[in-house]
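Two entries, shown back to back:
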Amino acid sequence: MQDVTVIEDPEAAAASLDPIRARLLAELAAGPASAAMLAGKVGLPRQKVNYHLKTLERHGLVELAGERRKGNVTERLMRATAASYVISPLALAAVQPDPDRFRDQLSARWLLALGARLVRDVGSLITGAEKARKRLATYALDGEVRFASAADRAAFIQELTVGVTALIRKYDTPDAEGGRDHRIVVAVHPTLKPGATAEDRPAPALDQ
């Protein structure tokens, strides 16, 4: 089972967003189960659960984990193909965000467009690497910082911009034979606490 799988196919995305199927995926991420076992948990007849499982299996979201005999019936034990799923913007290719359409480093929506592109590109890279049976070289840095004031936040952004720009200029060798291009995305945004409601979210003024 993969830790995270990116869904690129529109039909697979639609299948995963169905509330019942999303519940089945969550149950199967915890461990293999049959349609009969899942029926009691989701409150549906076994035949209906079986229908949903076949749909998920057709889109590669669940797979056969094994079989077992129960009386005169052979039950198929299914499992999720990943512990969690992310839907790629490729599933909505015609309307996916395009960060090249406009550039505004202080825009939350531009940050969102960059994040969407990150999901799309890394998802496609993972798919290609798995097919080629190669390791994908990536790196991520995640952290939190509390600014005492808006002025400190602005100063931090300025120093971050200068520092990262200097590193890019130092190591960028566009004419290097055999070199490989890499994309760098650095983001700063207010922390959203788990379980926060709309009223608890940071005020828009913090995005300015």
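entry 2 starts here
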Amino acid sequence: MFNLRLFIEASITLLVIMDPPGTVPVFLGLVGRKSREARKRAARQGVLVSFLVITLFAVAGNSILAYMHIGIPALQGAGGLLLLLIALDLLTGKGATNHPEVEDVNIALVPLGTPLLAGPGAIAATIVFVRQAGGDWGSYFALAAAIVAVHLVLLGTLRSAGLLIKVFKESGILLMAKIAGLLLAAIAVQLVASSVAGFIASGV
């Protein structure tokens, strides 16, 4: 049977961790000054990347981490350092490129798709829910439905973010890019701190 309790629990947990409203300022900071079609494409590609990453770790996360001898703290540290580099680009204004198409794809992959959406927290939560499913196909189906539902919410949120551009205009988007840089830097520091705490707790 469909595990409704697991579906609700997984949906709420992933929504809280992935924080659709919280991604809007960062998303606009990254692509707010691009065309409407470019924003829609970046939103679609970013959510798709996140969905593929989460699905991959739901299916084979335990095996991947065990085979490569990687723990969640290592993922947190790597994600934190990656976000810090992106944050510095946003804060210093050095993230521009002469190839907009390449930039759109890169933004969709990093940092939007991962590690911003499909970050260490979402990956770890997914792995935990897979373990809770315990081989029950109803629970697996509920978890899959939760992952799809959360990503549909993410897609709807990012696609509607363009409405804010009409309110904030060009100068507001530029300010939002700086704010996004600060937010990403704070997230990066928190991930690195959590990584260090995780390594200490594990005795590594």
